Amino acid sequence: MQSFGKPRILMIGCGDIGMRVAKQLSQSHRVFALTSQKTRFQELRDVGAIPILGNLDRPESLWRLSGLAETIIHLAPPQNTGLHDYRTRNLIQILSQGGNAVRRLIYISTTGVYGNHHGGKVSELTPVNPQSERAKRRVHAERTLRLWAPAHGVALTILRVPGIYALDRLPLERIQSRTPALLLAEDAYSNHIQSDDLARLICAAVYHGRPQRVINACDGEETKMGDYFDEVADAFGLDRPPRLPSAEIEKIVSPMLWSFMKESRRVGNTRLKELKTPLHYPTVAVFLQTISRNL
């Protein structure tokens, strides 16, 4: 049974990672979860969360959030268009009311804010240089929160997350459909984090996140995208994807997929030790070896 004496956490965004986080934190916290769909209420209750009906796109529906929790975990992505994240703006407007009970906010951003570094290394000190609209919306969200948090006595931790993988989040469909990868000489570096590890890092930030701090929540492995696809293909006994030059691939893949494929950066994770949570899967290979025993 939930105890009213437990510290309160409000989850904003309850997709796959949010559900994993809620399940872990409900053991030690009273977890509230914002959802715009009543049909998800039972699913949220099953992981120990208390559903709150509201929609970040409709500020008038968020009144229940005011003064509700001391800690906020914000996983919700921005809306799909524009350069600004209006959802984050709507959230902090309501959180600023009701005596501002918030003392800690953890925002889940993306390493896409760094832009294309043509294979160069980046750290949390690297200036952001977003090149896609979705990355620009994330930068806007980060800047909005970084201005708001210290002005309201809120300890803000930003986790910048790369590509998330899990058994049900591997590029198997892409490999089976023979979608090509880039030639090795033109291939981009990609960065990863396993989903359970990410959920554990988010939970750790509740306890160990430093105020006004950015952390790259990635495994730190330096792997090119095509090599990642080859690793997955080999683990599942599939043919490796064909390799083509960038000029040909750009013509045959969607603009969104191409925007991911052309950005290359090696994201460092030296600050991850601040969260005092070693990764279960420090490389994709370790994960694939683990699941291959059960295939």
From TrEMBL:
Signal peptide: none
Domain named NAD-dependent epimerase/dehydratase: residues: 10-216
Lineage: Bacteria, Pseudomonadati, Pseudomonadota, Betaproteobacteria, Burkholderiales
Any one of the GO CC terms: cytoplasm
Name of the protein described by the UniProt record: Nucleoside-diphosphate-sugar epimerase
Highest taxon, organism lineage: Bacteria
InterPro entries: Epimerase_deHydtase (IPR001509), NAD(P)-bd_dom_sf (IPR036291), NAD(P)-dependent_oxidoreduct (IPR051783)
Species this protein is from: Polynucleobacter brandtiae
Pfam families: Epimerase (PF01370)
SUPFAM superfamilies in alphabetical order: NAD(P)-binding Rossmann-fold domains (SSF51735)
Molecular-function GO terms, alphabetical: aldehyde dehydrogenase (NAD+) activity
Membrane-crossing residue ranges in chain numbering: none
